[in-house]
Amino acid sequence: MMNHRFWRIKTIKVIPRKWKMVKKASIFKKKIKSIWEKIRVCSSEKFKKYKKLSTKNISQELEVVDSVNIFSDDDSDLVALKISILGDCQIGKTSFVAKYVGDEQEKKCLQMNGLNLMDKTLVIKGARIAFTIWDVGGEHSSYDLIPIACKDAVAILFMFDLNCRRSLNNVKYWYIQARKWNKSAIPILIGTKFDDFVQLPLDIQWTVVSQARTYAKAMKATLFFSSATHNINVNKIFKFIMAKLFNLPWTVQKNLTIGEPIIDF
Questions:
Q1: Cα–Cα dist 194/174, whole Å
Q2: Residue 97 forms part of a structural domain
Q3: Quick one: average pLDDT of 63-70?
Q4: HEC assignment per residue over 4-15
Q5: What residues contact residue 205 under an 8 Å CB cut-off, 6+ apart?
Q6: Which of 29, 46, 79, 220 could serve as a FRET partner for 185 with CA atoms 20 to 30 Å apart?
Q7: Does a structural domain hold residue 18?
């Protein structure tokens, strides 16, 4: 049973702010409406040994194709799925997403005040799957975006900087707020900037790993340490999500070795 005292945090009063529109307000509303209509809920030298991940060596049943614009009208066979990303600011959330979707899709990113939307389209067993990734800013002004970002998401990625304990402590707040609006999404806890973290003394690494594993257990989440710079576990995280959603014959292996990118569940 989850210890409620463990999750007790101080309530923060937030003054809602209106979003800045990318273009005209009418265009923005049409795009947001289009997204909701398309979303369907679905049940050092140390780095030399880390190879960049590719779809070929993970699963032969997963074929990556060029991303498409989910706002286009030619999407009758497209299954749109929503993924939300929460965490403090300046912890590498946007870099993480950009590494996954690629440079071209990053340029097409729909940006608003406190929110970025990016998409990635894949082919799985002949079906086109479009991930719409909602990257929520970590500033207080973006807290009022949590409800719309989390609602109907199939997975929520809770991210923290491995080199900043405060960002890990704040995961409790993000988790509690997210679960108010979505209790069924797959929870994943992600520690970013592993390439910097691995340079820290082993005793500090052990402390952070222990705390992160404790949080992941309380959240019933899978834990990944990642690096966008070196593409460590970035692709693997999204493949893990797809395997869970579509029952693909692929499983992730645990790695609890201090000094290596942790994977725990």
A1: 21
A2: yes
A3: 43
A4: CCCCCCCCCCCC
A5: 197, 198, 258, 259
A6: 29
A7: no
CA neighbor of 149 nearest in space, from 36, 230, 49, 237? 36
The count of structural domains within the chain is 1
Q: What is the pLDDT of residue 5?
A: 46
CB count in 10 Å sphere of residue 67: 18
- In this structure, the number of other CB atoms found within 10 A of the CB of residue 64 comes to 15
Domain membership flag for residue 22:
no
Report the CATH number at residue 197. Answer: 3.40.50.300
Q: How many CB atoms lie within 10 A of CB 121?
A: 22
Tens digits of residue pLDDT in 135-194:
998 888 889 999 999 999 999 999 999 999 999 999 999 999 999 999 999 999 999 999
d(CA 40, CA 79): 7
Range of the domain at 243: 35-40+53-69+76-264
Amino acid 247: pLDDT: 82
CB 167 within 8 A of CB 212: no
Give just the sign of the alpha carbon dihedral 138, 115, 112, 106.
positive
Number of other residues whose CB lies within 10 A of the CB of residue 248: 17
Residue 42 identity: C
Helices 202-219 + 171-181 axis angle, to 10:
20
- d(C-alpha 230, C-alpha 250), whole Å: 23
